[in-house]
Amino acid sequence: MEMLLSLQSFIFISLLSLYLYLYFFTSYKRPAVGFKHYPVVGSLPGYLRNRHRFLDWSTEILKHCPTGTAIFYRPGKIHGVITANPANVEHILKTNFENYPKGQRFVTLLEDFLGRGIFNSDGELWKVQRKTASYEFNTKSLRNFVMDSVRFETLSRLVPILTKASRTGLALDLQDILERYAFDNICKVAFNFDPGCLGGDGTAGSEFMRAFEDAATLSSGRFRYAFRHMWSVK
Prior knowledge:
Keywords: Heme, Iron, Membrane, Metal-binding, Monooxygenase, Oxidoreductase, Transmembrane, Transmembrane helix. By secondary structure, this protein is mainly alpha-helical. Among the domains are: 27-100, no CATH class; 138-224, no CATH class. 63% of the residues lie in helices and 5% in strands. It has ten helices and two strands. It has helices at residues 2-29, 44-50, 54-63, 86-95, 104-114, 123-136, 139-168, 174-191, 207-221, 230-233, and strands at 69-74, 78-83. Helix 5 runs antiparallel to helix 9 (207-221) and helix 7 packs antiparallel against helix 8 (174-191).
């Protein structure tokens, strides 16, 4: 019996050693393409080092992939395909859109922020909401919106702020100014509400915009937890 156990232990250790040797030997010898995967933990080590800059990190990875596409694995059955290939993007978002639902994890993580509206629904519920939205966001209504709301926002708010800055030499945070400009316009067309974030000196009415940004940041951050249910504890 002891001899049998010793033999089994020897075989197990030998196979494990061979696997680790082949895995790491081939990993170091061939050029790294895509996300680096480790036994059991998958891409988790690299993810933990780069999740604060996930967009930059994934962009760097995809730049070295011949197809512009890479597979990503994390513990807890979290895996997916990340692509920057225009043909793949068109296939997913247009050609074969119905074959790529958002999925329950996506819906659950964003439900507090987006509810079950058109941006956070699948299947028949999405179709119903899309049909409803199509009556509001048609070519004529969008053209009228551009002619009226965007023109007003541009001429009465954006241009005066830029003109004043050019005359006085005032330094502007252009990204903040354009964010406010875009947020005012989006709220008008989506909610028929003018938050006036670009009103006055360009710093007024920002409470709702900042709250919206905080909610978006917190909601998107749920996807970046190392373990999928940790966000619910917080």
